[in-house]
Amino acid sequence: MSLRPSTLTEQVAGQLAAEIARGTYAVGAKLPAGKDLARQYGVSAAVIREATERLRSQGLVRSRQGSGCVVLARTGSAGFQVPALLEADRVQLAHVYELRMELEGGAAALAARRRTRDDLIAMQAALDGLRDCLDDPDPDSGVEHDVAFHSAVAVATHNPSYQRLLQYLSLQLRQAVRTARVNSLRHAGLPARVHREHVALFDAIARGEAEAARAAAVSHLRAAAGRLELGLAFADSSLSSEHGLAS
């Protein structure tokens, strides 16, 4: 898997960032609707979603469901940033997945303690959408349902800080999901296995079993990292070398 390709997402995000820097889209103004941007740049809606997620992670825009993207600044934030999936090398990606396991494992445990009926309905709706497109040869068909499921788990924590932090990682999540779906569609039975991982997480949350939910989330993410051929051994082996530990 090539980790540093020049992608449509990067190109569109770069052009939008340049337009913001030039003042074409002023601070406080809304970006054009996603369908209009897709038409303007000649790309899919999925590319526009990823491009605006990238701008949001850089602190250039704020996005809210149903209200579009509002420009926050003409230059990006120099603070903490997690590399986009396609920009990172394998060690960096392993670190991102370790971070996600801790964050999403904790979110799943909190969700199991705090979830409401509406939270469970939102998770189930996302799972139903995933189930309905398991065998769809288009890898993009299930991406939004997959992202919606993880987002619903974050919402079920009823902790706004968890929600904002996991939303910050949504670009990496969306890219990882799509890459994993491309790989899964090459192997008979793998999409169904991935779906079962999501169902296991949902079931643990629905039962209110916090530690089982944490374990299910971590197991799913570890398996996802394996499907991306990260293995998480990269981070472990580098630590072992530094400290003279046996591998």
Task: Outline the structure in words.
By secondary structure, this protein is mainly alpha-helical. It folds into 2 domains: 8-71, Arc Repressor Mutant, subunit A, CATH 1.10.10.10; 85-228, GntR ligand-binding domain-like (Four Helix Bundle (Hemerythrin (Met), subunit A)), CATH 1.20.120. 65% of the residues lie in helices and 3% in strands. It contains 11 helices and 2 strands. It has a two-stranded antiparallel ribbon with strand order 1-2. Helix 4 packs antiparallel against helix 10 and helix 5 (117-132) runs antiparallel to helix 9 (190-207). It is globular. Residues 1-6 and 233-247 have low confidence and may be disordered. It holds the Pfam family FCD. InterPro entries: GntR_C, TF_FadR/GntR_C, Tscrpt_reg_HTH_GntR, WH-like_DNA-bd_sf, WH_DNA-bd_sf. It comes from Bordetella genomosp. 13.
Second CATH tier, the architecture of the largest domain: Up-down Bundle
Percentage of residues in strands: under 5%
Q: How far is it from the N-terminal to the C-terminal residue, by CA?
A: 25 Å
**How would you state the average pLDDT, rounded?**
79
Helix content: 55-70%
Discrete helix count:
11
The tally of domains stands at 2
Radius of gyration: 18 Å
Order of helices and strands: HHHEEHHHHHHHH
Q: Just give the CATH class of the largest domain.
A: Mainly Alpha
Number of strands: 2
